[in-house]
Design goal:
Elements: H1 9-57, H2 62-90, H3 92-109
Length: 119
């Protein structure tokens, strides 16, 4: 069946579906980006309020506490260029899965920390 101007009904449906798919994809993409920025901000911002309790609970000296507080920034400055290179080489999806896996493992490992003493 043909509509005026030579386009078909199937072509019109495909364009509408494609437009709706693109809109849903962009909403999801923006949500993921905002979620990532929120997590980064939370990680960087929570260190200050908990520094005092970390110091007393884990018996940390000033150097150790400073290194813990600087850790996320070092990770950003070193990790961003490396992650950018790896993303170019291996693709976004595999690197996103690696990132989420590392985040999960590091978050779970925090459960086992009981003191600031070395091994």
């Amino acid at each position: 069946m043909t509509i005026q101007g030579g386009s078909t009904i199937d072509q019109t449906r495909a364009e509408a579906t494609s437009s709706a798919f693109k809109r849903r994809f962009m909403i999801r993409l923006v949500a993921v980006f905002i979620g990532g920025m929120f997590l980064d901000g939370y990680i960087l911002g929570i260190i200050g309020p908990v520094a005092g309790s970390m110091r007393s609970d884990l018996q940390l000296d000033a150097l150790s506490l400073g290194m813990i507080a600087a850790g996320p920034l070092v990770g950003i400055f070193v990790g961003s260029p490396l992650a950018g290179w790896a993303t170019d080489k291996f693709g976004r999806k595999p690197m996103f899965l690696v990132d989420m896996g590392l985040f999960l493992v590091a978050s779970a490992a925090q459960f086992f920390i009981t003191s600031g003493d070395g091994p």
